[in-house]
Amino acid sequence: MRSFLYQIEQRQRISLKEVKMVRAWYMDNDTSDQRNEHHRNPPVFIDLNVLKDVSGVEYFQLNLKTFTTDGTLDKIKRERGYTYEDELTCSKECLENYEEKLKIFYKEHLHTDEEIRLIVEGSGYFDVRDINDDWIRIEVVPGDLLILPSGIYHRFTMDNNNFIKAKRLFIGEPVWTAHNRPSDDIECRKKYVEKLSKI
């Protein structure tokens, strides 16, 4: 693990000036309030290239003032075959049994389809497992579009602001089934692991 993190640090030195940094970092093992940042000591941040290599997660930054007219979102939708979208707001005011819902969102799971989120307002965290099964926390804020590949183990939590509004994109009519871990025998999981091992 130490050599693996060393490689990450070396790659970041090379790519720091080339790639926009999104706030993503390796998590500690503290099980206290999930809405805290949960950095390691010292913190271990990673950039977009490393994030994609070790997890398959893709990131795009959109201009919320122009994305409906400048074609950037339409291009992504067209290239990836997204044909359905809706919006979801999460807050103490919008969700009954808010604290219980947070626990459900935070349960580790996977989906058989990509998970696509464009953050419109507020903020939160997506946690994803990397190739070594370590947790990476990804902070999402307005303008962030995150694509989690099918088969990746992940979870979501609000941050301490307790508010987020996101646009959800789907291929066809949304079929949103969460397969809690362990789900290693599901075909999409096998394909995900195989693909990641070749990167």
TrEMBL record:
UniProt enzyme class: oxidoreductase
Family affiliation: Belongs to the acireductone dioxygenase (ARD) family.
Species of origin: Brassicogethes aeneus (Rape pollen beetle)
Enzyme Commission number(s) from the entry: 1.13.11.54, 1.13.11.53
Pfam family, one: ARD
Membrane topology label: Peripheral membrane protein
Reactions mediated catalytically: 1,2-dihydroxy-5-(methylsulfanyl)pent-1-en-3-one + O2 = 4-methylsulfanyl-2-oxobutanoate + formate + 2 H(+); 1,2-dihydroxy-5-(methylsulfanyl)pent-1-en-3-one + O2 = 3-(methylsulfanyl)propanoate + CO + formate + 2 H(+)
Cofactor(s) the protein needs: Fe(2+); Ni(2+)
Protein name (record): Acireductone dioxygenase
Binding-site list for Ni(2+): 109, 111, 115, 154
Cell compartments where the protein resides: Cell membrane; Cytoplasm; Nucleus
GO-annotated cellular components: cytoplasm; nucleus; plasma membrane
Primary residence: membrane
A GO molecular function held by the record: acireductone dioxygenase [iron(II)-requiring] activity
Keywords, in A-Z order: Amino-acid biosynthesis, Cytoplasm, Dioxygenase, Iron, Metal-binding, Methionine biosynthesis, Nickel, Nucleus, Oxidoreductase
Keyword Metal-binding annotated: yes
Residue numbers binding Fe(2+): 109, 111, 115, 154
Cofactor: binding comment: Binds either 1 Fe or Ni cation per monomer. Iron-binding promotes an acireductone dioxygenase reaction producing 2-keto-4-methylthiobutyrate, while nickel-binding promotes an acireductone dioxygenase reaction producing 3-(methylsulfanyl)propanoate.
Stored InterPro entries: ARD (IPR004313), ARD_euk (IPR027496), RmlC-like_jellyroll (IPR014710), RmlC_Cupin_sf (IPR011051)
Signal peptide from the UniProt entry: none
Job of this protein: Catalyzes 2 different reactions between oxygen and the acireductone 1,2-dihydroxy-3-keto-5-methylthiopentene (DHK-MTPene) depending upon the metal bound in the active site. Fe-containing acireductone dioxygenase (Fe-ARD) produces formate and 2-keto-4-methylthiobutyrate (KMTB), the alpha-ketoacid precursor of methionine in the methionine recycle pathway. Ni-containing acireductone dioxygenase (Ni-ARD) produces methylthiopropionate, carbon monoxide and formate, and does not lie on the methionine recycle pathway.
